[in-house]
Amino acid sequence: MAKQVFTQEQTQTQRLALEQQRLLGMMLEKSDAEMDEFIDNKVNEIQALEKKSDNNDDDGYNNDSDNGSSASEANDTGLGGDINNDGDDDTIAWYRYFANNRSRDEEYYTPTAVSEKTLQEYLNDQLGELDLDETQRVIAQAIVGNIEDDGYLRRKTSEIADDVTFNDGYIVDTQQVEEVLKLVQTLDPPGIAARDTRECVLLQLRRKDPSEEVDIAIKMVENCFDEMAMMRFDIIARKLNISEELVEQVFKRQIRRGLNPYPGNAFSSRSYISQQVTPDFDVELDDETGHLTVTLLNNIPELQISESYSLMNEHYRSGKPLSVREMKEKKQIQDAYQRASMFIEVLKQRQETLFNTMSAIVKCQADYFLSGDERDLKPLGQQQIADMIGKDVSVVSRAVSNKYVQTRWGIKSLKSFFSEDINGSSRHEVYDDLKKLVDGEDKKHPLSDDALCEKLKEMGYRLERRTVAKYRGTLKIPSSTMRRKMSK
């Protein structure tokens, strides 16, 4: 019998560990704004969970001081770990982790990133990260070139196929364009390259975390879009066989407040714009000492288990005999208490993982943070960061997704600090040399991708032609055929 109890407890522990991992992965991918909404939903869902009030001095999930903690303090609380400075590199003297003891109404750090990218440039940068062959890349660039300022693709795919065939010299059909369009529609911002409002809304809904409300919202858009546009919730309710109140709730929470019908409006036409980005980190340089400081910025409220649930949980731990009703209530109380405790713990793990990830990146790319020169970026893989912070590479991948850091050189995406090792050089150095080759070529006889590949090999880069074509596309350098036409 003892063995059976042990097996049950072991299974329960494993199940909780898996749930924590799943929840942590979900939290890591979310931005600060998304986390705010996510936490609100969890506070409403878990009765034992509440936001810490401003006049409550009890600890929440963060035990740091008001203004952050130094590296030594971080080690005591599990922050920083083995990635903190050990004296071998005095460039990065210390890190700090910003404690979050602010109310939601308080102002917090929201600098503006000045972006010198149009919508098309922003999309083309993302295309460079996709594994496309040369034909797919030409099609994708043609699709992006036809996306209008509000983010919609109103040109027919058959017409784009004709453009690519007659203008770029690649014989393609409508089906090929449709397949590449599906890939383009996975880029950010969500909803991009939709051909109408209905498709735009569906693209965004399908990117949301799965839930019952999201599933209902998708069915509403797929089957009742016209009725939804006219706010005929009664007709929608009858068609979907659900209550009118639920239809209205889903519409307000998942569609009206959760989606952007014009995903391209964050960018102004095709001119240079200022795009609002709230960085997740700040890296400062002390000019006198040359030390770099990492700060995790957030507006996430502190959470705690409600006093009433804490008292009831203690009451039922006393071991005294209980009635059937009390046994049932005990289970409900303990389940809620356990869920609240786990959520608070995972939220703390999220903050620590984000901080440790950024700190490791800074340590690896210290030269860039000192100079601002992208050629100082070293080859860096996510596995390297994962090894430094003692996490799986999938954790790092989620931690850097849609995250930004404020540097003295501007706001940078965390993903921009990663690049493969190309014969001891980073991708940024290859980009620079590739641009120099194209800038110095005979404009009447531009270098083909094969020729560029050979030239780069002579410079010490062992690259395949397909990789060179991919890098050329990322840099928005037209094909040799197009460059020849442009020179006439």
Written description of the protein model:
- This protein is mostly helical and 488 residues long.
- The protein folds into four domains: 2-106 and 280-364, no CATH class; 119-184; 197-259; 427-487, Arc Repressor Mutant, subunit A.
- Helices cover 52% and strands 5% of the residues.
- It has 21 helices and six strands.
- The protein has helices at 2-29, 32-45, 71-77, 119-127, 134-145, 157-167, 174-184, 197-205, 212-223, 225-229, 233-240, 244-256, 307-316, 324-364, 366-371, 382-389, 393-400, 427-439, 449-458, 465-474, 480-487; strands at residues 49-51, 281-285, 292-296, 303-305, 404-407, 410-413.
- A four-stranded mixed sheet has the order 3-2-5-6. It has a two-stranded antiparallel ribbon with strand order 1-4.
- The longest helix has 41 residues, at 324-364.
- The chain is flat.
- It starts with a helix and ends with a helix.
